[in-house]
């Protein structure tokens, strides 16, 4: 399995830029596993955080191509620096009488929040890195997952500890 890379791309906040960035990936047959885009503190700049897989040579080529795109300001492969990653998932899981306590125990262990309750299900909010979300989903599968909605990965470089 090829390693995951989290890439941060600062771009001009204008129409068509996201399309050009994603087109670069699709045009070369690369998959984007996760994609988040939002305005930064500067309303004229957006930050795209994307996750893709590939060996070092492929990722290096992708980054070089991204830097050549019009309206791209800066590109950083966060995988190569100290950084913090988070994503969020909303998971609707079956919670019948015999499994309710176990679902709540899993939620408590992983610091999930119960955001909705019905007679037959709980909806949990899970926040953490990719591995944590996968671990919770794996444990909840045995109880029956009705639906999963996930954000993409958000990432930020750690501050220097001088």
Q: What is the number of helices? A: 4
Give the overall pLDDT as a whole number.
94
Largest sheet: 5 strands, antiparallel
Helix content: 25-40%
What is the global morphology? elongated
Question: What ranges have pLDDT less than 50 throughout 5 or more consecutive residues?
Answer: none
Q: First CA to last CA: what distance? A: 36 Å
Which structural traits does this protein have?
elongated, 28% helix, five-stranded antiparallel β-sheet, alpha+beta, four-stranded antiparallel β-sheet, 162 residues
Textual characterization of the structure:
The protein is α+β, with helices and mostly antiparallel strands. Helix content is 28%, strand content 42%. The chain is built from 4 helices and 9 strands. It has helices spanning 17-27, 56-68, 100-109, 130-141; strands at residues 4-12, 32-39, 45-53, 72-77, 83-94, 113-118, 121-128, 145-150, 154-157. Strands 5, 6, 7, 8 and 9 form a 5-stranded antiparallel β-sheet that branches. Strands 2-3-1-4 form a 4-stranded antiparallel β-sheet, covered by helices on one side. Strand 2 (32-39) and strand 3 form a beta hairpin. The longest helix has 13 residues, at 56-68. The mean pLDDT is 94.
